[in-house]
Write a structure and sequence with these properties.
single chain, alpha+beta, 5-stranded antiparallel β-sheet, 4 helices, 28% strand, elongated
Length: 202
């Protein structure tokens, strides 16, 4: 049985999945989220003989690891790490683009969690700390549909908050709070996280 990414499956939204073949056998993994609880799961698909038999006829999988803390942000982070780990043990599933693709899938999922009440065009951007005030590092998009702009802002957030250094300053929010601000946004927002200003603007 094949289950499409983005579909609901036994209470979980299929955020991402990957399956590969090695020596005539197929192995796969999948990443799921439960929006109602904030729980995340990493599942190992059944080994099989095709790209379509990772789930049995009733939709069950081989094994899973669930992340059920009260903090969804930590659940997501831990699930992403476990997803990478599972992919590395499955034959021909992990590759050099794995990290980027998995983070893109999570960003896409989070960007669509809270719908916009009406169509809106927003630009996503960030402004970082530079050597001089006149030339800080920055990035921005052209005006995009609301969910696409949120996706781009989450990608900026993922890229700028992977560093070990944590810059604390007045008015800044934690990484967890930053994700929640973007997920819930239905219009322009602006905040500082780890010394970087992030924004959605009209």
């Amino acid at each position: 049985m094949r289950i499409k990414t983005g579909e609901q499956h036994q209470g979980w939204t299929m955020v991402d999945q990957a399956r590969g073949e090695w020596g005539g056998s197929f192995e796969g993994v999948w990443l799921g989220a439960d929006e109602s609880t904030g729980h995340w799961m990493v599942g190992r698909q059944h080994d099989g003989q095709s790209m379509d038999d990772g789930f049995d006829p009733t939709g069950n999988w081989s094994a899973s690891r669930q992340f059920r803390e009260d903090n969804e942000y930590l659940n997501m982070r831990r699930a992403l790490a476990a997803y990478d780990e599972e992919a590395r043990t499955a034959s021909d599933v992990w590759n050099g683009m794995w990290d980027q693709r998995a983070h893109e899938a999570v960003a896409r999922h989070l960007a669509h969690r809270v719908p916009f009440p009406a169509p809106v065009q927003l630009s996503a951007g960030w402004v970082g700390r530079g050597l001089t005030d006149s030339h800080p590092p920055m990035g921005a998009t052209i005006p995009l549909d609301g969910p696409v702009a949120k996706y781009e802002l989450i990608r900026y957030l993922q890229g700028q908050t992977r560093f070990d250094e944590i810059v604390a300053e007045a008015g800044s929010v934690s990484e967890e709070e930053a994700y929640q601000l973007v997920i819930k946004a239905t219009g322009p927002i602006r905040f500082v996280c780890r010394g970087v200003t992030f924004y959605l603007s009209k």
